[in-house]
Design goal:
Shape: globular
Largest sheet: 8 strands, parallel
Distance between the termini: 50 Å
Strand order of the largest sheet: 4-11-10-9-8-7-6-5
CATH superfamily of the largest domain: Aldolase class I
Radius of gyration: 20 Å
CATH architecture of the largest domain: Alpha-Beta Barrel
Strand content: 5-15%
Number of helices: 14
CATH topology of the largest domain: TIM Barrel
């Protein structure tokens, strides 16, 4: 078990304390991280997760550095943030060292609590642009990006990678270079570069990487329950765990893990799924412009619907919806039939919101 584990890094900028991390003055407790995911890790999902608790560090979606200086903070769905979303890491997609300073200037204005560099995305469009895992093919550019990013911020700086081709002779020099250039933390998705999410994660590989570096290592991939979180910690010997798609399926997963593994008594394990879904919808309606809402609700529902035996009905009806009002109506009908207890609580606590949705408000 993790109880009582306490390790101290040899670097002055980071330490691993009992149940949490302290990086350049940023306290991360518990050591459970939300993974950056396009179309998902926006403000509405983050606050839905926070309603349950248990997450130590939140994340934005992947932010293209070349677009960031032109984003309108007041209306951008990528930059929407409430005061309760703390601490929040902003993930940058970069393909040129010249983009670092302008992007970091924006993040300073936004009061980013931490910055992460995407080195793991293998989407063809991203790789063709030279970003994500494509940066690994240009070591000079990659080194320059990390070096400039380190100079541009005094706050926590991390990067997210995959296991690459799995060969030590390529992976070890990469990890050591990232540490030498000043990264405070490294997150590793425990799959090879071309492996799909259906492939069993290689958590044990991370334990070897930990021997190469003296900074905190965060394990990512395949964690979707308390049991898998425990197994990941044991096999990877990581200092923290990052959770991605399972957080969209079960926004309460951080709370469950925090309570079971870190004895966090502040989390909420008494929740009704319809209420969480409604909170997500409200977050979208309050923080995003009308044209930015429906797509994000459809993306979230694709994952959230898996909590129900007949969840495909919920997912398909929301997917077929032409507007937010119609999508919410379909969801409310589904909950009234397939989760009547949760639906009754939803009526009691958010009756006015239900009425406004049904009436087209």
């Amino acid at each position: 078990m993790l109880n009582g584990r306490e390790i101290h890094c040899s670097t002055a900028r980071a330490s691993i304390k009992k149940y949490g991390l302290s990086i350049r003055g940023l306290e991360i407790y518990p050591p459970l991280f939300l993974a950056p995911m396009a179309g998902l890790t926006h403000s509405a999902l983050r606050t839905t997760i926070l309603a349950c608790g248990g997450v130590g560090l939140l994340s934005t979606e992947m932010l293209a550095a070349w677009r960031l200086p032109d984003e309108n903070v007041d209306i951008s769905p990528y930059l929407a943030r409430t005061a309760e979303e703390y601490p929040l890491s902003y993930q940058l997609l970069l393909n040129d060292a010249a983009l670092v300073e302008p992007a970091m200037q924006v993040l300073r204005r936004l009061q980013a609590d931490a910055v992460d560099i995407n080195l793991g995305c293998s989407a063809p469009r991203v790789r063709r642009a030279g970003g994500g895992s494509g940066l690994l093919a240009t070591p000079r550019v990659l080194r320059a990006i990390i070096r400039r990013a380190r100079k541009a911020t005094d706050g926590p700086l991390s990067a997210k990678i995959r296991l690459g081709d799995g060969r030590k002779e390529t992976l070890q020099p990469l990890c050591q270079m990232l540490g030498d250039e000043g990264l405070d933390m490294l997150c590793i998705h425990a799959r090879l570069q071309k492996e799909s999410f259906s492939r069993k994660p290689r958590w044990a590989h991370i334990a070897e990487i930990k021997q190469w570096l003296d900074i905190p290592i965060i394990a990512n991939g395949g964690v979707d329950s308390v049991r898998s979180a425990q197994a990941c910690f044991e096999q990877s010997q990581a200092d923290g765990i990052m959770i991605g798609r399972a957080a969209a399926c079960k926004p309460w997963i951080f709370a469950q893990i925090a309570k079971a593994l870190f004895q966090d008594t502040t989390v909420c394990l008494e929740y009704e799924k319809p209420l969480l879904y409604a909170s997500f919808c409200q977050g979208i309606q309050e923080r995003f412009r009308p044209e930015r809402r429906l797509g994000r609700l459809k993306e979230f529902t694709h994952y959230f619907a898996t909590n129900y035996t007949f969840g495909h009905y919920l997912a398909s009806r929301v997917q077929a919806s032409r507007n937010m009002q119609q999508a919410v109506r379909h969801a409310l009908h589904f909950f009234s039939v397939h989760d009547p207890t949760g639906y009754r609580q939803l009526q009691e606590q958010k009756g006015q919101w239900i009425s406004s949705c049904v009436q087209g408000g």
